[in-house]
Amino acid sequence: MPPITAGTSTFFYTARKQPGNRTAFGFRTAKSRAALQEQLKREKLVLKTARPVPVLKSGPARLKPSDHLILNEQLHQLLSRGVPLVEALEVAAETVRTPARPLIEKMRDLVAAGASFSDGCQKVGSFDSVSVAVYRAAERSGDLSGAAKQIAVTLRRTLAVTGRAVTLMIYPAIVLTISLLVAFGMMTTVVPRLAEALEGAQDLPLISKVVMGTGKFMAANVLLILLAVLAGVVAVYIFRGPIGEAVMRTARRTPLIREVIMAQESVRFFSTMAGMTRSGVPLADALGVANGAISHPKLKREMERLRTRLIEGGALRTLIDEVESFPLATRKLLIAAEKSGDLESAFNTLALDMTEEVERRSQRFLAVLQPALIVVMFLIIGSLLAALLLPMINMSSTLAR
Predict the structure, then answer these.
(1) Residue partners of 394: CB distance under 8 A and separation at least 6
(2) Residues 132 and 280 in one domain
């Protein structure tokens, strides 16, 4: 269902497609029935019925990174060519995904009523604090187009890093899920039948007795086991916050993956700092905003300490050298950039370098993970096969005598 925003309702609609007179239906958010009709008209749909759907109110929906990227690319292209902001937002509303259109349209209405673009973003409530701060600083410097371009670059890097992180999680999840499903199928179908065939046999290996006993229990209680799995999934969903934090704490201490995580955090930090610095935000304020974009505890503590000591009058070139989370080469580059007064270029370069570093380290991690998963699959399925084959081998040896 599309996100709910202030001042909008969710409708269940039916409409006629043109040409062909085929019927379309679904859920859509709009300010009114007339606004819904106008939305559908742009998609060559003729509204037939529209019924409001009662929904639970929640916080403002977040604009997805892909839509945020499209919005900023459109703003940069149009504003840099002299198109007024209200018209640029009208064009952007047509290019984002359908669920995001009400958010952009509300921003357009706020800007048309006299609000600044950054205030409109804040009132809509669908933009992160980093983007709002960059927009606000850009409005003061009169370079909203440049800020939109920088945010678009940052979002592209973030999406690339996120895509790599998703790949790292999906691959082992698929392999382990297949292994567990195969093992479950064997335990509930093959193992009980073999146990019945070998019932009364003497001198069964211990592993065979354990596996066969477990298989008979699972076959007799399949529904109970499925309910337990479902309850476990629900529990994981309910406590996903603490579980996710525990998983991340473990990942930050695990070789290979901890380097990937640190590189991902560095990409977010340097990309944010590049955008803030380009918009003329003071360094201490930029650090305060950028620190909100990272979640690595050690890096966050070090950057907060750097920001505090910078406000107290410390020299940046001295303080940077104390940030041990960054490699020595990164610190030396930042010190040299601070001396030459070109921090924006340094932040951009480091964000690009760290994006490439995420790719390299992810490839390295996957290269190690693939054989490790094969070993895990062998342990899960191979142990079952061994438990099933050992009795047959023993029986064959006995008959051969």
Answers:
(1) 203, 204, 205
(2) no
